[in-house]
Amino acid sequence: MPALTQLVAQLPATLPAAVLVVQHLAPDSSGEHLVSRLSMHTQMRCHLAAHHDQIEAGHLYLAPADRHLLVHDGQLIVTKGPRENNFRPAIDALFRAAAVTYGNAVIGVVLTGMLHDGTAGLDFIKRCGGQAIVQDPEDAEFSSMPYTALRNVAVDHVVPLSHIGALLQELTSQAPPPPTPIPEDLKAEAAIAERVVGSTEDIDAIGERVPITCPDCGGALWKLEQGNVMRFRCHTGHSYTADALFESSKQALEETLWVALRMMEERKNLLSSMAVRGEGLWSVQQEERLEAIKAHINRLREFLLNGSTGATTASEQEQD
Predict the structure, then answer these.
(1) At what angle do helices 280-302 and 242-277 cross, to 10 degrees?
(2) Which residues constitute the domain of residue 252?
(3) Is 138 in the same domain as 113?
(4) How far is Cα 131 from Cα 125, in angstroms, rounded to an integer?
(5) Residues 284, 228: one domain?
(6) Most CB atoms closer than 10 Å: which of 42, 121, 147, 177?
(7) Of 140, 172, 204, which closes a domain?
(8) Do both 253 and 239 map to the same domain?
(9) 145, 118 in Cβ contact below 8 A?
(10) Quick check: bond before 82 cis, omega within 30?
(11) Does residue 127 belong to any structural domain of this protein?
């Protein structure tokens, strides 16, 4: 929010464009409170986005908590569709809808933030002829989102936060270049997002089914390779960049291993009781089983406490 308020303070009420904002919010966040806070820092008229609101230049629209913000034919579309990159609202969902609807008249801006949302969306905008702006990672409080965008997208402008407002005023005062054809796969995805859920036939037309399941619903995933960012989506509507899918599967694996550790601890306790109450050879066998499971527990606990961190560090080093 501090970065956003600093940016909107640079924008005048006469800006010849509308500003649509997605911020990752907790589902129970007060959107009205955030809009009021933004209004204190800018001359633009700020609103909490509402379904079927008309889009007007000089106005700012903030996506409500737990709702995607889309656009279509000059109107806002507010929907509780499936999460994208584990977020709702998702930056990618807004950028895709804007790119398909307004083509090269769209300017996408990614500010400070964590994880990967917004990277594929900037690629959508570029594929439709629009422009991409990324806050300089060295200037960002959280550099993950800017860095990821720069690694994957041919960004037009990388500037400090304090310069973005002037850049937006300059770019919106210029006539857009000749229209660029809108890719058919993006049209199809935007249509699916508007009606919330698609079909297997819809996704077959734009992607290739792969032997990976959706972390959110357990359904099949399709790989989408158009553009510069590899992505995956299920016909329910959940969508992921490859990075986001890897992160989701890693979290699911860790949760499964903690459950396995808990079950092994319970088995150890049962074997311990059996060994104490038994006699002779039978008791010795339980002691041997008990020692074996203790060794497994120690290895698994060591991996969870140390190995997963090491794996993450190695992955990050590989990406760098």
Answers:
(1) 160
(2) 248-319
(3) yes
(4) 7
(5) no
(6) 121
(7) 172
(8) no
(9) yes
(10) no
(11) yes
d(C-alpha 9, C-alpha 273), whole Å: 68
Both 216 and 269 in a single domain? no
Max Cα-Cα span within the chain: 91
- Helix ranges (H only) for the chain are 2-8, 31-39, 91-102, 119-127, 144-152, 161-172, 184-194, 200-204, 242-277, 280-302, 308-319
Residue 302 lies in a domain: yes
Amino acid at 170: E
pLDDT tens column, 59-113: 999 999 999 999 999 999 999 989 998 899 999 999 999 999 999 999 999 999 9
* Number of domains making up the chain: 3
State both tokens at 110.
């990614």
Q: Are residues 90 and 109 in the same domain?
A: yes
| Residue whose pair of structure tokens reads 């500037």 in the numeric block | 159
**In whole angstroms, what is the distance from residue 75 CA to residue 190 CA?**
14
Indicate the angle between helix axes 144-152 and 119-127, nearest 10 degrees: 40
Q: CA angle at residue 58 from 139 to 35, to 5 degrees?
A: 65
